[in-house]
Amino acid sequence: MSMSGWTLRFAARCMALLLSALVMTAAAFDIEESTIDGLHKAIRSGETSCYAATLAYIERARAYNGVCTALVTADGASIADASGTLRARSKLVFPTQTVKAASILPDLDRFKGKVEYGHMQATLSEPGAQQQYGMVVGIPGSNQVSALSTLNLRGERSTTCPAECDTPPSRGALPASCPRACESLRAQPDALETARSLDARYGRKPDLAKMPMYCVSFSFKDVYDTRDMRSTGGADVAYAMDVPRADSTVVSELRSKGAIILAKANLAEYNGGAGDPGGDAKAATKSFGAGARSTWGGTSCNPFDPTRETGGSSAGSAASVGANLVACSICEETGGSCRQPAWRNGVTGLVTTKGLIGYGGAIGADPYLDRAGINCRSVRDTAQVLDALKSPRRGYFDPRDIYSALPSGTASDTPYADATKPSKKAKPLAGMRIGIVREYMVKHSANDVAISDAINDEIKRVLGDELGATLVESYDPKYPDDPKIANMPYNFQHALAEVLPPLMPELLAKKDKQGKPVFTLPGYDLSSRDYMVKAAEGRAPWPENLNLRSINDSDSSYAFSYHFAQYLMRRADDRVIDWASLNANASYYVETRKAAMKNWENKIDIVSLGNTQDIKMREVGRLAVLKVLRQNDITVFVNPTTTVPAARIGYASQPAVNSRPVGRFPTSANLGIPEITVPAGFNSTVYEPSFALKADNSDYESVANETQASTSAQPMPIGLSFWAGPGDEAVILKVAAAYENATHHRKAPPLLPKLAKK
């Protein structure tokens, strides 16, 4: 052997011994509930290594990231054994027991339609792997979450490039049987190899100034392109190459800051799929039941109770953080898809001013509304990630995202993490005025009461009494006035009366599907100029149902048709190049999704009132919100992220009522303004909704339960939201951090305990 060869082998052996020693020192460090600062401290002290921390997350994924749903069948009979793709080195194993549909859908014998019962089916992407199709239901006691759809591990990170096509180049040439595109993938280290490399290069002395996300394990909602992992928006699509050529902007920034790109987070496919635009394609069957789901990843389940939904569409982002499968995740929201899963899974969720975080290289549902968000277990971690997303060259501007061309001064000049530092004052929020948004606390049903009351107590006791903020409340006729809290002298009704008539007068003349006026006042013609002038000047009453909730209702937009066609063009796959080739190479978990995607393919004319309404409403809404903020000298607004408990997977969801949605209020999304939700405790009181067959037996509808309360098997998280005007990220982070430090409501899911040390 030559001296150079001996030297290389000796060096390799020394490195192996060093890595082994680093792993062995990790026994005292727990990644469960760890923070970014805590991880860095442990690495610097030698308490853990990057490899050990990364491996610990993978081990938790192996333990808790399995299948958590069972099929809903006609007879409830058992099915044959079935297995799926690899996740964390283990094949998915599907349950053989099923649930009888009649136990969920009453009067099924009278239903005139055809149910799409649950069934197993081979995926197109990996024919040897099966997945659940049709109706499913959560499994009690499964203690699994199905939050991560793909892990960045060789042999499972791509179906185009299976294990034999994803060996490191150092092990020899690419086999002739493998697609040539695999050459670029196998040159990319996987998560564990990256961790080893970081340990070898930096040991206990990483440069945290240059790499503030050093060894922080992330999942990314599977709408963000990753150059080293399958990226399909959660869909079962047989791309010629399922790994795109380049990272999305958020992935690239975090990778450059030392992050471990660990996994793709499961989701409601294509950010919820933007609904069905209507068209000739019709599904022959119907399926029913709550839950965030994708064809490739399956259904995600709540880490606090696997029978309950995670919320969507960023289901796996929040669930993976809540279950301690990753440190943080990058989510996405169009109407509330970051915030809704965040509160349901007991984690922090931040969405910023539209455009502050670049969205280049990602699949969206509506470009005007889509924005990236951050899920972490603490407010400080969330702020640190936001800081890390700032490019040292471009700042927050992203050349691939036109919405990121924001006015100077929108982004903070100082690190956002500075806003989360604990205050030394006895009353950290003294001098601040916090506006309680009563429009979002109305008890529309029995199922709204428990969370509304719990949040009301948190606001008054913690924000007011303990932290010293001055509280003022807005007005809603359906919520009782609190005599101990001052009313806003100028509220949202006043602002809407001032801004809607000159900028969006058509809203006052809006009609429902039956042609009847939506907003009425006895003795007034709301569509007339004279009424509008009087209302704006406070000389005529304002309709009670034209409020902060109802202004968020708008017509459909067809932007998804345009945006996804653009994404496919930019991705430049050799097989899937447009809508037609996408649908020709895809399967969908239910027939209704297949029909919807076909209708999107045929939606060539993308002109719609929805876009115009969204653009006008953002201007109107921002003006109203800012006027209320400034005229009342309010620092931030506060309200429950929602008041409705999480539904059971596969069962009915709580019906929307009085413009109150189920999972989140979409105001900040529609207006493009920052909002953060933080854990605010737990709730066990639920009025479970149910399905009821319509009178003509043609369909099922969700029906609220107003009389029979039940106690959920596990206490479920609730969330408190803080929001303000454009560019106010620092102030909402400051208030949220003060609340978090005073309460520490974030808890690890009891059903997913720490793993025994190996």
UniProtKB/TrEMBL annotation:
UniProt cross-references to InterPro entries, sorted A to Z: Amidase_dom, AS_sf
Amidase domain: residues covered: 187-449
Signal sequence bounds: 1-26
One Pfam family named in its UniProt record: Amidase
Keywords: Signal
Gene3D superfamilies in the cross-refs: Amidase signature (AS) domain
Domain of life: Bacteria
Name this protein carries in UniProt: Amidase domain-containing protein
Originating organism: Hydrocarboniphaga effusa AP103
